[in-house]
Amino acid sequence: MLKVAVLVWIVLGASLAGAAMIAVLAVPDLAADAMRLVPRAVICGFVVAIPLSFLIARKIARPSVG
Q1: pTM of the predicted structure, to 2 decimals
Q2: Spatial separation of the C-alpha atoms in residues 57 and 23, rounded to whole Å
């Protein structure tokens, strides 16, 4: 399950990091301080993706019923 979680984390982390970066750049007040906020937003996106990837991997690894 760990291998699946890592693969899901890579994809989900990149997606959430990109969405956070776009959110920072789309808001003019935040974009003015982008050099400081973009790396923080990207790191937050990858960190938020960690527990979500384990939940998704658990659902993938669970045998289907029916």
Answers
A1: 0.85
A2: 27
Predicted confidence (pLDDT) per residue in 7-46, tens digit: 999 999 999 999 999 999 999 999 999 999 999 999 999 9
Residues 6+ apart with CB under 8 A from 57: 1, 2, 4, 5, 8
Please choose, from the candidates 43, 45, 41, 56, the residue with its C-alpha nearest in 3D space to the C-alpha of residue 6. 56
In this predicted structure, what is the pLDDT of residue 65?
A: 67
Distance CA 55, CA 35 (A): 32
Other CB atoms within 10 Å distance of the CB of residue 30: 15
